[in-house]
Structures are given as C-alpha cells and as structure tokens.
C-alpha cells in the first residue's frame, strides 16, 4: 500500500446497531483478517457498459472469455477455502456447472457442459503459501485488489452498517480523490466478528447504481471437511492430464491487478502484462497484439471507435462507463479503470 488515505469520522448512527469504530481501526482489522476456512454461496453482477466485441463469445474456455464473462451479467458460485492450500469454486451456468478445486496435492478443472475434466498434480511449494483460486468469485480477493489501491489520494470512512448473508457488517467506503479513475467509490461490507469482507460494491463516477457487486448470500466460517476439496469425475467424462508444470498453476484473474514477478516472462507481452502507474491510476499494458487489418469483425468494431494520436503514436480509444482501453497501431493495448486521457498519458511514458 502506497500510503494511508484520508480517514473519515467514527460511525455514529447505523442499523444494525454495532459498536462505534473508526475508519482507521476498521481498515486495519480488514487488512489483518485471517480465517482458517469458510464456505458459502457468492453472487456477482456486473454492468460496466462494455460495448459488444464482434467475434468474442465470452466463453469460459479461454482467459479472454473468463474476463468478459465476469464483466457482464449475473453469476452464482459455491465456494470453499481452507488454509493453507485448499480451495473449491463451483460456477453454476444455465443448468451446467464448472468446477475448479485443489486439495493441495492435485487440482481439477471440470466442465459439465462439455463433459471434460483436466487433472494436474500440484508441485511442491513453500509451507504456508496458499494456492490461488479463481479470484473473481472470492469477495476477499476482489476487496484486496481495491485495498491495494489505497494511497494518500483515497478518502476512507465508515458509511454505516448492514446485514450481508445474515451477518452484521460495517460498511467501509473507499473514495478516490483523483480524477484519473472511473471509480466513484468502493464499499466493502466487513463482517463485524471475523473482519472478512462479505461484499464489494463498486460505483462509477457517474450514476447511482453499482457497476460491479459481488458478495456472499450465504456463508459459514467453519472449516470445510477435507472431502470438500476432492473430486471424482462423473462416469463417461473425458479426463486429460497435461504434463506436470514446474510451478504451481494459477487461474487467470478476472480483475486487473499487479501480476506476480516472473522473470521467465517478457514485460508487456501477452504472457507478461506490465502495470504502469500506481493505485487508482494503474494501467495494464500488453504488447504484441495483432490486428488483422482484413476488415473482419474486430476491425469493424474498432472502425467506430475514436481515433486518437500523440507522442506515443496513433490508435483507437474504446470507452465505457468503467473500463477504457487504448489500442495503438503498433500493437500495444492499454486498459484500466481510468479515463481515456490517463491511458494516453501512460502510453506516452511506456517503454516501446
């Protein structure tokens, strides 16, 4: 965290009734919260105002599909976690189910619609290092990514209390002071006993309805049994076992965040995005994006986008009420929860 933002007053009147707490103390409690396990049902909804991209189906069998899936519509998932390295996420889609689970020794990815399953043996790792689960369906991970954006340009206050999944929660509100971001505010509903974020609501700078909301509709903080994280494929399901990787597998993240440092990846390439800027003004850059130039669906889509140019070159700006992207003629893409001008400023300072 770059620094401590402006802290608001102690909450005075709220319902349900909870002891008064300062924003500084509540923030500290959230950042140090730790539970041995939990399980529950998570509901997410998103309306970022993204224009439809021709040729992109939003399927779940690719990283781009997982991103577009989370950035639109409503989704429900059953989740379970147990320290240090057990996790299970079951996403329910139109009478079908997709499961990702690991017991710390093996990991499974299963799609009931395709009747396919992939099994991986999880390599040894340092004790205490948790296995990563799909972050778009974990309110704690989504909350952390916004908490990491807190800097002196962030106002932090307690805006009241509410009931989430039948539990009493404080409302911790993060309000960016900078005009470089499209985020108006982020509110975390924080459990009053465990200090775990139960819900995250993101409001755009314009409008009163949340652009993104993800939270528990039911939750238990009892540690799930070991059998929760085992998986047996149904009869007739095709199972593949790819070659064991040398590092622990990660599930693609659906919310932009600072990537782990991995020296084998080249910064800015499709395999190694670069994060430019800090906090609310962070921009993700990817190099080597190929535009066909053959008049296909993507080119038709970009034809209607605004053309911009500057010291960084020439390109197209794709805008929405939350996510904006700059696609340059030399194959670079800059994207983030920032204004179009912030994208161009980042492009001007970015390495070629």
Question: How would you describe what is shown here?
Answer:
There is one protein chain. The chain is 12% helix and 36% strand. The protein is mainly beta and 352 residues long. The chain folds into two domains: 6-240, outer membrane lipoprotein receptor (LolB), chain A; 274-349, no CATH class. The strands form two sheets. The chain has a 13-stranded mixed sheet with strand order 1-8-9-10-11-12-2-3-4-5-6-7-13. It is globular. 33% of the residues are buried.
Strand order of the largest sheet: 1-8-9-10-11-12-2-3-4-5-6-7-13
Looking at CATH, the homologous superfamily of the largest domain is: Lipoprotein localisation LolA/LolB/LppX
Distance between the termini: 28 Å
What is the CATH class designation of the largest domain? Mainly Beta
User: Would you report the number of β strands?
Assistant: 19
Distinct helical segment count: 5
Radius of gyration: 21 Å
Oligomer designation:
single chain
Q: How many distinct domains?
A: 2
Sheet bearing the most strands, described? 13 strands, mixed
Helix/sheet category: mainly beta
Given as residue ranges, the uncertain stretches (5+ residues, pLDDT < 50) are 9-14, 53-70, 126-133, 248-271
Q: Quickly give the CATH architecture of the largest domain.
A: Clam
Order of helix and strand elements from N to C terminus: EHEHEEEEEHEEEEEEEEHEEEEH
Give the CA-based shape. globular
Approximate helicity band: 10-25%
CATH topology group of the largest domain:
outer membrane lipoprotein receptor (LolB), chain A
């Amino acid at each position: 965290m770059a620094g401590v933002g402006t802290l608001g007053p102690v909450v005075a009147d709220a319902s349900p009734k909870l002891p008064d707490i300062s924003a500084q103390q509540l923030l500290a409690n959230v950042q140090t919260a730790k539970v041995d396990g939990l399980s529950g049902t998570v509901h997410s909804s998103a309306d970022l105002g993204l224009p439809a991209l021709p040729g992109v189906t939003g399927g779940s069998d690719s990283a781009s599909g997982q991103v577009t899936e989370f950035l639109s519509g409503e989704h429900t998932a059953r989740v379970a976690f147990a320290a240090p390295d057990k996790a299970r996420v079951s996403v329910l889609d139109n009478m079908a189910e997709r499961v990702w689970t690991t017991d710390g020794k093996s990991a499974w990815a299963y799609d009931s619609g395709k009747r396919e399953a992939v099994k991986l043996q999880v390599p040894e790792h340092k004790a205490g290092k948790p296995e990563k689960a799909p972050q778009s369906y974990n309110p704690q991970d989504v909350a952390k990514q916004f908490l990491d954006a807190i800097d002196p340009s962030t106002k932090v206050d307690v805006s009241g209390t509410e009931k989430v999944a039948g539990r009493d929660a404080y409302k911790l509100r993060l309000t960016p002071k900078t005009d470089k971001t499209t985020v108006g505010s982020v509110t975390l509903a924080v459990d009053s006993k465990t200090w775990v974020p139960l819900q995250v609501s993101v409001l755009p700078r314009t409008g009163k309805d949340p652009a993104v909301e993800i939270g528990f509709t039911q939750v238990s903080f009892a540690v799930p049994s070991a059998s929760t994280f085992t998986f047996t494929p149904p009869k007739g399901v095709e199972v593949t076992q790819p070659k064991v990787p040398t590092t622990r597998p990660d599930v693609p993240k659906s919310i932009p965040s600072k990537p782990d440092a991995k020296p084998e990846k080249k910064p800015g390439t499709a395999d190694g995005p670069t994060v430019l800027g800090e906090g609310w003004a962070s921009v993700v850059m990817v190099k080597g994006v190929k535009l066909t130039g053959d008049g296909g669906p993507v080119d038709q889509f970009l034809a209607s986008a605004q053309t911009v140019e500057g010291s960084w070159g020439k390109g197209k700006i794709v805008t929405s009420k939350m996510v904006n992207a700059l696609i340059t003629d030399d194959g670079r893409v800059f994207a983030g929860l920032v204004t179009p001008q912030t994208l161009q400023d980042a492009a001007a300072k970015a390495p070629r």
